[in-house]
Amino acid sequence: MALSRFGSNPRMKVMWHLSWPAIIEQVLATMVSYVDTAMVGVLGAAATASVSVNASSIWLINGILAGIGVGYSVQVSNAIGAEDDARARRIIRQGILATVVCGMAALLLFQLLAPFIPVWLGAEPSVRPTATAYLRWYTLCMPFAAASAIFSAILRCMGNTKTPLIFNFSANLINLILNFFLIYETRTVTVGGFSLTVPGAGLGVAGAAIASAVAWAFAGSMLLYVGIRQGPRFQVRFREGFRPDSSIIQMALHLGLPSALERATINLGQIVMTALVASIGTVALAANQIATTAEGLCYLPAYGISYASVALVGQSVGARSAENARAYGSLSAKVALVLCTGLAVLLFLFAPALASLFNSDPQVVEQSALMLRIVCFAEPFFALSIVLSSNLRGAHDVRYPMVVGLICMWGVRIVLAPILVIYGKLGLAGVWIAMSVDLILRGILCTHRWHSGKWVHIAGLDAQPAVHTTPS
C-alpha cells in the first residue's frame, strides 16, 4: 500500500483515532521530561549524574511492570474482540491483584537496595549520597507506578487511549510544578520589573524525586479508578470477587513473562552500560543522561503507534481475523517508519541546540550532541522494532521479541561497547555506536519475523474461521 493512500484507508482512520492520543501523550511527557532534566541540570554535573546513575534501575522495574501489563492487556483485547464481556471483567479484576502484589514487592525491594545500587553501578563517592536519597524517595511510588503501567496498558487495549494521555500528562505537569518549589532554595524572581519571592524547600536532587513520587501516585490512583469503572460493559463489580483465577494468571504469565524478561534483559544490559559509562567519568555520565533523554524525541511516535496497534492486532486475534491483524500490523509499522525517520533527520540537524537546553557545561553539551548524531541513523530501525514487537505480542508471538532483545543487547551491545571504549579508545561514543548496531539489528529481525507470517499459526488464526467484527 502506498503511503499516499493512507488518508483514504478506513483502517488508517481507526488506527489513527487510537494512535494520536498516545503519540501526544509521548510528546508532552517527553517535553516535560526535558524541562525536568534541565531543572536538575542547573545544579551541575554531579546532580545530573545522581539521577542518571539510577535511571537504568528505574527503567528495569518499569520495564518489568510494563511486561506484566502486556500479560493482562492482551487478554483484555482478545476478550473484547471475541465479545466476551464477562471474561474481560474477570481479567481486569485479576489486573488489580497483580497491581497490588507487584507494586508492593517493587517498593520493598528498592527500599532495601537503595544504598547499594549507586555503588554497584560505579557512581563516584561524591555522587552516592544524593543518588541513594533520590532512589529512596522516587521508589515510594512503586505501587502507583504498577497501577499506571498495568492499567494504562489495559485501557489502551480496550480502545481508550485518551485517559492515559490525560492522567500521565497531568502527572508530568504536577512533577514539573513540584520541582519548581522542592528543588531550589527560596529566591527572588524579577518579571517585567516586579520582584516576587518564590518559596523553595532547597532539597535539590531529593526534591526532584519527591516531586516524581507524588506525581505518579496521582496518575496511578486515577488510572486504576478509571480502569475499574469503564462503563456498564466492563465496570468491575466487587460482588463478583477477587479470588485468583489460575487460567488468567497462567495466560498472563505466558504472554507477559517473555515481555517482562525481554525488558529485564534489555534494562539489565543498560545497567551494565551505565556502569561502563560511569567508569569513563562524571561528565560522560551526565552527557549520557542528557542524550538519552533527548533521543526519546525520535522514537516516541513509535511507542504511541504501538499502543494502538497492539490493541487492534489483539482485538483482531480475538475476532479470529488474520486479515485485519496483518493489515493493522503492517500499516502501523509503515507509519512509524515515516514519522521517526523525519524526526531523526531533525535531531541530527539540531543536536547541539537541543543538548544545550539541558546543561550549561560545554563538555557535557558537546558530548551529548555527538551521541545524538551517532544514534540518529539507528532510530528508524528502532521504530520498526518497537511497533512490530508489540504487534507480535498482540498475536501471542511473545517469545521472539524476547529472544531478539536478549541477542541484540547481550550478544551485540554488551560485547561491542567495552571493545570500542577500552580498546578502540572511543569513550562514550563507543557505547552509543554499539547501541546503534543493536537497534539496527533489532529492527531488521522484527521486520523479518512479521513478514514471515509465523505469528498467524501461533495465534491459531490459520485453524479457525473469522468472526467479522470491527476492532474498537
Automatic annotation (TrEMBL):
The chain crosses the membrane at residues 14-35, 55-74, 95-117, 137-158, 165-184, 204-228, 335-358, 370-388, 400-420, 426-445. CDD domains: MATE_NorM_like (cd13137). InterPro entries: MATE_fam (IPR002528), MATE_MdtK (IPR050222), MdtK-like (IPR048279). Pfam families: MatE. The keyword Electron transport does not apply. The keyword Membrane applies. It is found in: Cell membrane. Keywords: Antiport, Cell membrane, Ion transport, Membrane, Transmembrane, Transmembrane helix, Transport. It comes from the Bacteria. Its main location: membrane. Belongs to the multi antimicrobial extrusion (MATE) (TC 2.A.66.1) family. Multidrug efflux pump. This is Probable multidrug resistance protein NorM. It comes from Pseudoflavonifractor gallinarum.
